Protein 1
Amino acid sequence: MTSDTTQTEPAAAKSENATEELTELIRSARVVLWDFDGPICRLFAGHSAAGVAGELVDWLASRGLHGLVTDTERDSLDPHLVLRAVDRRHPGSDLVAELEERLTKEELRATSTAMPTAFADILIQTWRARGARMAVTTNNSPRVVRAYLDDRGLTPCFAPHIYGRTQDLHRLKPDPHCLHRALNAMGAAPGAALMIGDSPSDFQAARTAGVPFLGYARNERKAKLLTEAGAVHVVGSLWPLLETLRHQAAPGGSGG
């Protein structure tokens, strides 16, 4: 046995096991809970999330409220983090409601330049056609999700199961609230569902809800964040899911 063979065989076995585990995840899923920004599209592909965060911070400063966010929160360039920071200090206030509405309007603007995730549309349509039920469980506004899905012709695959940001901002992921809403509305047991997400907060929400999790990572940085958070199953493309579905739908080799 050569050294090359010694190195290749374990790698091949590992790859085969990963394929089998992915197949089982997909086979077992009766309900698929999708995060929105990441697995379905890159919402801020053409409308900078960092720019939106900066605008929210500037708006607070214009009202003399610059001190409501720390330097770390300002430097995060994450609009959701800015929103949650203000909500922690003034929960349920009119200020938070106005800030959330400003974020929603920016997210709606972003839908016009959002970039569909490769293979997401056809995967969603194929999976739905194979009998799985779909829901969106996201920290984005449900108005934004509906606008994007309408534009892509995907709304019938999900409606009415779109569960996004509410006025209860402490219920954003990693809190599993939106997952529980979806499961309860669809009458689904957590073990019969599969969550597809691209962030540690998605993984944490799924774990707390008892829902199997599949991570989607469009780059190595996101993959590292997911695996460090504890995610076991992470893919860099949705293509293997589509191929697995096609093979399952046609065990005799016809279909696809």
Protein 2
Amino acid sequence: MAVTVVSGTGTEIGKTVATAALAAAALAAGRTVAVLKPAQTGVAPGEPGDAAETARLAGPVTTAELARYPEPLAPATAARRAGRPPVRPAEIAEAAEKLAAGHDLVLVEGAGGLLVRFDGDGATLADAARLLDAPVLVVAAAGLGTLNATALTAEALRARGLDCTGVLLGSWPAEPGLAERCNLADLPAAAGAPLLGALPHGAGALPPAEFRARAGRWLAPELGGTWDDAEFTARHRPPR
């Protein structure tokens, strides 16, 4: 069962665009793809959510949401305030398994960071990943502060016996500063996992056709792309 959980070190980190890039690369390789967004918050009925944005950028993927809450809050809080049932890990796992039965790849996009609560019992995306026995790809920021957030996320994954596939930078600036350049070498050590790509800042604003044509260049071969960690890191090596 080819299920990958896409989590982040925080909110607004680039998870949706990263998910779209993963989907686009898989589609280009001839694979069928489904994208599952367990809990969509901050979107009104009828408005496109993260799964729809992934489809807009990546192309013909199957999309699914399990719940939608109007306020832009953590899923458990948004569900409580809306007076609606929360999403449980078992529901996420069941939905992902059903999608996996008919697709080559299922991408499960979380909400916020790994340990954001989905229900009043404290269940998180990590619990769903454990039920699925699925690897987790961590989408991280490029700049100052990302080492601590990435290390904490990776530590939480290890403590739960979950596999961290690697780290993907959700937004690499056109003119990286010293912190971003240094972080290229330091992030793998902080995560205990490889750096598997870097999405350029503003990638989500590209025309869909251009996004799909370029997506593979942002992802390492492990994610279906051609991005070269050593070449990228050498090109952005910080001055001494």
Protein 3
Amino acid sequence: MSSPRLDDTGRTYRGAGPRQRQEERRVRLVDAAVEVFGTSGYRSATVEKICSTAGLTKRYFYESFDGSEALLLAAYTSVTDRLRDSVLRGAGDGGADLDARVRGALTAFFRSVADDPRIPRIAFQEVLGVGPEVDNAYRRVTLSFVDAVLVVIGPAVDRTAFPDFHLRTLATGLVGAVLMIAQQWVLSENPQPIESVIGSAHTILSAVLGQLGPQPM
């Protein structure tokens, strides 16, 4: 017996309701955008190209997005979520030792950048100069990385000596340094080996974090 089918009026189609199917189509469009924007670029992309890559018609594009910029925002969120998640996973592998957590976070971050060139292209290049809404998203994402840094370093910081606003300012500077290193690394015609890049970023973070002191027992 065949699986249940549904049309767009709200009935089930192959066991999935219309909302689930819409979300599945949206995910396919975002994945297609990551592929297209991350390989040939945002400015040369067309809705037709995105839909062709996703295997969907333009009707379904406009079901989820009101234009290419909205899709760029979704693709940007997708790739930066991956980067941030990799940072937190990498830090977690270091246990309670701050230096190990920092090196683990940096290693995971730079390996994610190296392993999928689409990610840095979208995160560091294609979102620049698009418009105010994308600029605002860039700032929000940067702040989310600041939050991730605070998660990484929090257990080892003397909170009585360094108030939250001071730690956030330091974390903002560290995020800016790492993102700039990553951006210049992927744009370089003769990029350094990844181990060297990680080591350089680690030197910067260690120099700053070494001033914070251990958390009192």
Protein 4
Amino acid sequence: MVSEPKPAGLLHPLPGAIGLSHLSAYDWEAADGVCGGSPHLHLVCTEAYVVTGGRGAVQTLSPDGYRDIPLEAGSIAWFTPGTVHRMVQGGDLRITVLMQNSGLPEAGDAVFTFPPEVLADPDRYAAAAALPPGTGPEAAAAARRRRDLAVEGYLGLREALVAGDNGPYLEFQSAAARIVRDKVPTWRKLWREGALAAAERTGAQLDALAAGDPGYLGVATAHEAAPTRLGGFGMCGRRDEYALPGTTLPYQEE
């Protein structure tokens, strides 16, 4: 008799221990005349946009150069760690965001493309990235200031990359790595309890099946959830999120 694989980490994660939220892209016009979100990158997570309505684009900066990827209902775009991405509003753009590693980007795996002088000062960076709690006018104004500052730095990175100079882009990646370095122990814990634990559960289940013991299926069940905060201010737009560990991390009632 093979013993039943014991759950580890988050007990009821979404498939693959992904994070999930819903976004409506900002319609605020930036300095370059484009409406959209705050350009940023992730250090260890791939992120995907699943477009559920409207139209727009995602602008990316990577070793591939600058890209402008059209978005419309039914399309999917995803970006690997280190890719700067900027969501662009083209008309009622609505997106479901899938995040690797149990929503780790919401636990700090995101660095805005602020100008170099802001990135060089940890206190100044933290102040520029922070938002007041809630979803009222004060939070909206702060989110817009943050977006505008990120666009300011982004436009410089994009101009250099289009001109064939990847130096500023590489310098930004290095600055981003310095900014998040102290968070790595916390991230490692979230990864172990989320994505790694989910993969290890699958391995234990495969071992049980190979031994002819499907006993772990005796705890099969279903779960349901609905968004528990609507219209929060995310990096790219207004965000609907879930009070589920590993789905939107960290979740705080406000």
